[in-house]
Amino acid sequence: MPQAPTLQSFIAGRWFGQHPAQSLRSAIDGHEVARTHEEAPDFAEALAFGRHQGGKTLLALDFQQRAQRLKALALYLSERKEQLYALSHHSGATRADSWIDIEGGNSTLFSYAGLGARELPSGNLLHEGPAQSLSKLGSFAGSHILVPRGGVAVHINAFNFPIWGMLEKFAPCFLAGMPCIVKPASATSYLTEAAVRLMHESGLLPEGSLQLVIGATGDLLDRLQGQDLVTFTGSASTAGRLRANPNLIRHSVPFNAEADSLNCAILAPDVSQDDEEFELFIKEVAREMTVKAGQKCTAIRRAIIPAKQLDAVATRLRERLSKVVVGDPAVEGVRMGALASHEQQRDVAERLQSLLHSSDLLFGARDGFEPRGTNVSQGAFFAPTLLLARDPMAEGGAHDIEAFGPVSTLMAYDDLDQALELASRGKGSLVASLVTKSPAIAAQVIPRAAAWHGRLLVLDRHCAGESTGHGSPLPQLKHGGPGRAGGGEELGGLRAVKHYLQRAAIQGSPSMLAAVTGEYVRGAQVIETEVHPFRRHFQDLQIGESLLTHRRTVTEADLVNFGCLSGDHFYMHFDEIAARESQFGKRIAHGYFVLSAAAGLFVSPGPGPVLANYGLDTLRFITPVGIGDTLQARLTCKRKIDQGKLSPQGTPQGVVAWDVEVSNQLGEVVASYDILTLVAKRTE
User: Among the three residues 460, 478, 496, which one is the final residue of a domain in this structure?
Assistant: First the structure.
């Protein structure tokens, strides 16, 4: 057998490390897959390169361009995924397990690419508006901006998802414009290295935006500064040790941890053995025990069930687990692979022995455990193991000890209050599930359980077909939990991107705020020209370019005609007596008539650069409009976003948001909103 390759770090734009060090063995048959390298990286150089070169090259692109890079990167990796699948086999993962890691990671890139395109501006400043007036006359206002931090993000990741674990942190970090240094757990670092090599070979990564450390972190954390940050996924003990690093404390370096998590699933008392929900609960617990051989930070460690259902649940779980075929995933019929390393195998075995002090064994290695495949005796296999807590209300045991493998403990409860008490004994977890038929029980349980869990799944027959399951993190939703789960947050859409940005309050005149944010702010100076703003192409349109329209007086015929056309005969528009007795004291115009009338005032009717209106934001009706009121509108270019897209006809276009303010004859604002349009680019 050829000598196993020596993995390399990617530091300061070059691959580094030649001399082999720690041996990394296949979880399937024990043969050597790779070695870490012996040489210690120069972390001072790595940080300097990230801060200066990485920061510069990333910020040469804007949010939109980085979103486009993420999409291109996802497509590039998708085309080469089989290289990663072939390597992933050594980690003991089945193809389905590897799918979570490889294609789940890719899906995260796609998700953040789409989020960036939809939600982020052109440029590198995110305005958290709207601006608020801080003075009587409106000459002094305030708002918030988010800007890229000037430092480097250090991502220290766990062994169980060496690709997805990296990409879930890289994607929002890259989108935010922050360079990062990734340090994977050594046991499966050969997969992270392979993925980073592909990412580097793509040519899509700005220089210095991503660096890789194989092996120990050395003095890396001791060199961080206040503009840097750290994310960590792993054990609570390691998280606590790293969080207490004196340098991190001294510089107030943000530290986000995802650590131990004794997740639970609660079977509600309304579910009987004949219900579909009973079978869903059994399937969910068994699946969370066996997917990735239970090596998921979100796996169900505690199954909390009504005492009256204990025997039935135990019997059904034993039956289901007995049918799980364990072994080399390359062998036909195998559904559960090995633990990721022999070290992990020893750790789970030790923790199981600790759990048996307070629990009884219901199913385990004694029940016919024979992994399939060649040389599997040298692998890191572990039997699906089901335990029963002797005294669920006692402290410790399964409430404290996490066996990070295919191990779960049944806990019986008498009533829902006791079930919730048991759930909270985990002292904070990433996720909990409630299986119930009853919306009333869901409404009772979830708000109370939410204090102790980062994410909650309510599972019933109606959502089961499309549910992503108990433990599946999604880019759109928070991944992280309170207490022993680390207290941090990862993923969660735009919020995850903002984690890598610095939020600052700004104060000044509306014109100054507009200049800083790159967005029109109400009260700022406007630009009025002879040319209608709708006649300008995307490139020529200036922020603050504005049109003050002619006036229109509202008549009774307007209300009647609009009501008949729309079918809206609401009494406030048609019933003189009822309207007079209302809080307005008179008949008022339809809100949507006001919108339509405003459009009639500011729209330029001829064909032109404005291609389509695709929505309204922030619509508010403020002052009622009555018969005889005179309307006038101001249309102002508020925001421009260049997504680099073409129309279906192939015309280059950008997104323009317009601020619309509709006023009456007294100067009172009657309606306020943003219009979103697609505007053609000039092509000559």
Answer: 478
**What's the domain range around 314?**
264-478
Cα–Cα nearest to 592, from 554, 564, 566? 566
Domain count, the chain: 3
Q: Domain check: are 188 and 278 in the same one?
A: no
Q: What is the CATH classification number for the domain harbouring 439?
A: 3.40.309.10
**Interval 78-89: pLDDT, tens:** 999 999 999 998
What is the rounded CA–CA span in Å between residue 409 and residue 188? Answer: 28
Pairing label, strands 407-413, 429-435: unpaired
Task: Please state, for a pLDDT cut of 90, what percent of the chain lies above it.
Answer: 78
> Alpha-carbon distance 432 to 451, whole Å?
11
Q: Are residues 272 and 389 in the same domain?
A: yes
pLDDT (tens digit, 9 = 90+) per residue, 550-580? 999 999 999 999 999 999 999 999 999 999 9
pLDDT for 255-296, tens place per residue? 988 888 899 999 999 999 999 999 999 999 999 999 999 999
Residues 432 and 548 in one domain: no
Q: Which amino acid is at 149?
A: R
Does residue 517 form part of some domain?
no
Of 33, 36, 8, nearest in space to 20 by CA: 36
Q: What is the pLDDT of residue 154?
A: 97
Alpha carbons 666 and 21: distance in angstroms, whole number = 80
Q: Is residue 501 part of a domain?
A: no
Are 97 and 183 within one domain? yes
Question: For the residues 96-108, what does the mean pLDDT come to?
Answer: 91
Residue 535 sits in a domain whose CATH number is 3.10.129.10
pLDDT tens, 621-651?
999 999 999 999 999 999 999 988 888 888 8
Mean pLDDT of the chain: 92
Beta strands in 391-548 (DSSP E): 407-413, 429-435, 453-459, 478-479, 490-491, 501-508, 546-548
How far from 357 is each of 117, 351, 390, 405, CA to CA, in Å?
54, 10, 9, 18
Alpha carbon distance, N-terminus to C-terminus of the chain: 62
Indicate whether 196 belongs to any domain.
yes
CA 122 to chain centroid:
21
Task: Name beta bridge partners: 545.
Answer: 527
Do 228 and 303 have their domain in common?
no
For 479, counting Cβ atoms within 10 Å of its Cβ (0-12 exposed, 13-18 middle, 19+ buried), the class is: buried
471 pLDDT more than 80 = no
| Cβ burial 418-440 (10 Å sphere, 16+ → b, else e) | bbbebbbbbbbbbbbbbbbbbee
Spatial separation of the C-alpha atoms in residues 23 and 48, rounded to whole Å = 31
Of the residues 231, 258, 285, the one at which a domain ends: 258
- Whether residues 285 and 169 share a domain: the answer is no
CA dist 211 and 200 (Å) reads 10
pLDDT > 70 fraction of the chain, expressed in percent and rounded: 100
CA gap 296, 27 in Å, rounded: 16
Both 72 and 152 in one domain: the answer is yes
Residue 239 — pLDDT band, cuts 50, 70, 90? confident
Residue 404, pLDDT above cutoff 60: yes
Q: Which of 674, 681, 544 is nearest to 614 (CA)?
A: 674
Amino acid making up residue 595: L
Strand partners of residue 630: 553
Report the catalytic residues.
Answer: 258, 297
Same domain, 247 and 307: no
Confidence of residue 498 (pLDDT cuts 50, 70, 90): very high
β-partners of residue 502 are 147
496 in a structural domain:
no
- Residue 103 phi/psi, 5-degree rounding, is -80, -25
